[in-house]
DNA sequence: TTGACAAAAGATAGTTCTATCTTTTATAAG
DNA sequence: CTTATAAAAGATAGAACTATCTTTTGTCAA
């Protein structure tokens, strides 16, 4: 019997990501993905139940890469101080965005395409919104108060500002600068913040 | 002869915005819009050349609201110091997002549907990306240097931080708080940054 | 009251896409 | 070499949607 090509599923995901990066997630169709991989359109369904599963596949693969970072273990550890987890979450997301400039963009694209609540993050910390979950947990536990929101903001600012300093001080070599433009940098930083579910519910 | 209902075009735009807010821009169809307004589907085409024109209509109406703010006049004035224009741009966008929590989200959604460069902003300052255009113009003119990027960052931070202070100091009444969650606030602030065209070009 | 005409509704052609079902192809095992 | 079987391709049903063309409705002006 024919042996299954185990790399094919990854190739399909790769092609989907390519389309997202070039044309946005709204432009994805099974026909286009199949054509890019060089297989029949129906073949997609041997590897993914439906189109939703394909998008989930892309999302989960990117999330998995995030989880492999050692910092994420601290974030997921409920015994650690909530503020440290907040800081670590933001910082690791930011560092990740430097090493994987497309990754968070892809995640954002799929989040934008998803109606209602994003299911994808639920397995991360048992909530749809990790940073909010951490924050609310902190408030509930009496560790955080309203004033601590300022702390969170400060963390975000300082993390981004650190990169700006690196730029100034020539820490990066010419070919090594993660972001060439201000908007690139800010956007990557912005991408760390989960989707504003609250804005959607009317 | 029958008189044209001049409010109908606005009603169509309103319905489109409603759909974007609830289900995202990918969910827009002329059928759904027409049903929401309570008219025939073909009727949409009496007011808009095609679907693209409908989306443009939504986008341009939101942009027009932005331009009505007095701060925008400073941004658009080429005689003003480039740094002041940068600051004013960011600040006015932020203030606008506080008063119109859905507006920037709608803009972002339509940008998502547009492949490649967004044409919509070109009439604003003669570029696809106002903040980058301002920034690059400043560098070209010798007014800005790399180090000035830090200034821009600082401006962004301080603008957001001001809101955080407002929260702390009880400037807002209970029912008046523009954002209830951190992610809401940051996301709105992030939306002020134009789309990362640079990330898309491979 | 009637004719003119724009607005609105209705019908539909044509396209695109998802997902399933059928047929063909390739290969491992006997 | 043959057979079994999974993978791949091909075909297509069915849904949804855009955009256009035709018919009906409503209303202003003579």
TrEMBL record, chains A, B:
InterPro entries referenced in this protein's UniProt entry, alphabetically: Homeodomain-like_sf (IPR009057), HTH-type_Tx_Regulator (IPR050624), HTH_TetR (IPR001647)
Top-rank lineage group of the source organism? Bacteria
Query: What single Pfam family name could you report for this chain, choosing any that match?
Result: TetR_N
| Entry's transmembrane regions | none
One of the record's GO molecular function terms: DNA binding
Entry's SUPFAM superfamilies?
Homeodomain-like
**Start and end residues of each HTH tetR-type domain:** 6-66
Keyword terms: DNA-binding
- Point out the DNA-binding stretch(es): 29-48
Keyword Transcription set for record: no
Write the protein's name: Transcriptional regulator
Record lineage = Bacteria, Bacillati, Bacillota, Bacilli, Lactobacillales
């Amino acid at each position: 019997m024919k042996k299954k090509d185990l790399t094919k599923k990854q190739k399909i995901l790769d092609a989907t990501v390519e389309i997202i990066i070039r044309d946005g997630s709204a432009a994805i169709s099974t026909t286009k993905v199949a054509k890019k991989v060089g297989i029949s359109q129906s073949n997609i369904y041997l590897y993914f139940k439906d189109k939703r599963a394909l998008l989930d596949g892309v999302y989960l693969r990117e999330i998995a890469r995030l989880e492999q970072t050692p910092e994420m273990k601290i974030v997921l550890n409920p015994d650690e101080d909530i503020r440290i987890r907040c800081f670590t979450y933001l910082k690791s997301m930011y560092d990740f965005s430097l090493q994987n400039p497309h990754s968070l963009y892809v995640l954002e694209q799929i989040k934008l395409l998803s109606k209602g609540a994003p299911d994808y993050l639920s397995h991360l910390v048992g909530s749809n919104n990790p940073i909010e979950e951490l924050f609310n947990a902190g408030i509930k536990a009496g560790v955080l108060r309203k004033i601590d929101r300022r702390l969170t903001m400060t963390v975000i600012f300082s993390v981004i500002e650190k990169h700006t300093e690196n730029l100034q001080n020539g820490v990066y070599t010419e070919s090594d600068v993660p972001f060439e433009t201000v908007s690139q940098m800010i956007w990557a930083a912005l991408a760390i913040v989960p989707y504003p579910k609250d804005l959607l519910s009317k």
